[in-house]
Design goal:
Elements (H helix, E strand, L loop, with lengths): L6 H5 L8 H10 L4 H8 L3 H15 L4 E4 L2 E4 L1 H21 L11 E7 L1 H18 L3 E6 L6 H6 L5 E5 L8 E15 L12 H4 L4 E4 L3 H13 L6 E5 L5 H7 L4 E4 H4 L9 E5 L5 E9 L6 H20 L6
Parallel strand pairs: 3-4, 3-5, 7-8
Antiparallel strand pairs: 1-2, 5-11, 6-9, 6-10, 6-11
């Protein structure tokens, strides 16, 4: 941008209607025939005549003069018309969205994803990129929720996949990817529970919590509280990877989103049962900054993520209710 422009440079455009240059192009193309030029632009004949009068006033020239049965372009029009035509074509090309070919793009994309969520999306997404857009390099960034706004502001991430526990400002957009009920999990050699287990009975069983998402933990705690109960949390793990091993060693149960564990090989051999199947749900969102709303690469990645979860929601295995 040219920062040396004077105020006069900007103010003179207050008196010019650059839309009229399209009218000039149409009139010159139709050799001053107002009726045919009006049809080209999509105006009535009277509106085109009015636009021509405004053009004459703006440019200080009659532009087209009637000679016999024809309109003759003035010297000013003949000199100006090719420049206007070239300028309009240049602007048209620049304003049109560029052609996007994912196979030829070379770009890095950074997504904030916690480790426990990577398994849900990265294998599929990276497979798609390898086949369709090998030049797009995807990087997962495990950004703590409290630092997510800062990470966006610093350009360290362009989008994030998170639980529904982030206060969304006007600078961001979001898309719900999926909802998941919760399951309670334990090892049959460590705990003996008479199924089905009521909420009150679960509140008496030692529990292992996970702080992978503050909101998810709060959902469960609030559900117990709403029923006048509290769950005895004996230990907390930073993610879900260690939870199966802990449950095999300790007489505790864990309550986790079904989507996180139902097809996870580490949880094979553990007992899984629905926790209040239709009452408590975990939500997963895709978040992105408005700055990248129309970036074609960002759009390409977002569409693949959204489609992945749409397909998963259709065929995802589930526990019996």
């Amino acid at each position: 941008m040219n920062g040396s422009r004077s105020d006069t440079f900007f103010q003179q455009f207050r008196h010019w209607d650059l839309n009229l240059l399209v009218v000039l192009e149409a009139l010159f193309t139709e050799q001053g025939n107002v009726t045919r030029a009006a049809q080209r632009v999509g105006l009535s004949q009277s509106a085109m005549s009015h636009a021509l009068n405004r053009l004459r006033e703006m440019l200080g020239d009659p532009l087209f003069v009637k000679q016999g049965q024809r309109m003759q372009a003035t010297a000013r029009t003949v000199a100006l018309a090719p420049q206007v035509s070239a300028w309009l074509e240049q602007i048209r090309q620049q304003l049109n969205p560029p052609q996007f070919d994912p196979a030829t793009i070379r770009q890095e994309v950074n997504i904030a994803i916690h480790e426990h969520l990577e398994r849900l999306i990265l294998p599929s997404l990276l497979g798609v990129l390898r086949r369709q857009a090998p030049g797009i390099h995807l990087h997962s960034r495990p950004v703590p929720m409290a630092l997510l706004t800062e990470a966006f502001a610093q350009g360290r991430v362009e989008m994030a996949i998170i639980g529904g526990d982030w206060e969304l400002s006007e600078a961001f957009r979001q898309q719900l990817l999926t909802e998941s009920r919760f399951v309670y999990i334990y090892h049959a050699e460590q705990l003996t529970l008479n199924e089905p287990v009521s909420l009150a009975e679960l509140a008496t069983v030692p529990q292992l919590a996970s702080n992978y998402s503050h909101k998810t933990a709060t959902i469960i705690d609030n559900h117990f509280t709403a029923h006048g109960l509290s769950r005895p949390i004996m230990a907390t793990a930073g993610g879900i990877t260690a939870i199966p091993a802990i449950l095999r060693e300790c007489p505790m149960l864990a309550i986790l989103p079904e989507i996180m564990v139902v097809d996870h090989p580490l949880f094979d051999g553990l007992v899984m049962r629905p926790f209040e199947p239709e009452q408590v749900r975990a939500e997963l969102y895709l978040i992105w900054h408005r700055l990248h709303e129309h970036d074609p690469v960002q759009q390409f990645i977002r569409e693949r993520i959204i489609q992945h979860f749409a397909d998963r929601n259709t065929v995802s295995p589930a526990l019996p209710a």
